[in-house]
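Support reply, case 0932

Customer input (verbatim):
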Amino acid sequence: MTQPVRGGKPLYGQAIGIIMLETQFPRIPGDIGNATTWDFPVAYRIVGGINPAMVVRRERPGGLQQFIDAARELEAEGVGAITTGCGFLAPFQEDLSNSVSVPLFTSSLMQVPLVHAMLRKGQRVGIITIDADALTEDHLAAVGADRMPTVICGMETYPSFRQTIIGNRDTLQRKDMEDEMIACSRSMVEDHPEVGAIVLECTNMPPYAAALQEATGLPVFDIFTLTSLVYHAVVRRGFGGSM
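Our regenerated output:
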């Protein structure tokens, strides 16, 4: 029997909504803000007046409502799940997820407990973040990662990455960014050979994940792996193989 197709929404097919900060730095393929990063349609919503430096340094205490409004707008458009463009929004996880009825995940750091569960006893999860000094127990606790054995490496001492993302420059030197991330990852695993996998906190880091994996030989998790996992949970497809 043919069933009627139900409407009621202005847009269709965008299963993942992404709340973005207001930035001007280039969004190369692999970055959360480049739509070609994804193998599926996404819907963006920009929170005006808030940039990465403000979120990392917690300089905008009244910004939560803007993110709630953005999440609700994306839900109203019909997305099946929502994420954000900055891993440092982790402290907003409970407030934001409670503001909508669809799954909402603020940070790649939510993968840390899962990744740790995959590792053998004695191994740690390596976290590469935009700023290790700014990444606090509050960020980790908000996503259930505070009790996990981790090693944290920050990019705050690497000039190209810091100036491009935190400085919000309108130019980007991909080779310099990649070299700095490789240097950070190698330093971390050399100093801490117990690191068994890496989680990238920053949503601007996935373009360099393959290079990090090649340099370290370790699994690398990031906002791309988390968002892809959630997408395949909210958009299940039938299997058409043969017996």
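We compared this against your earlier run and they match. Two observations from our side: The CA atoms of residues 172 and 191 lie 29 Å apart. The radius of gyration is 18 Å. Please reopen the case if you see a mismatch on your end.
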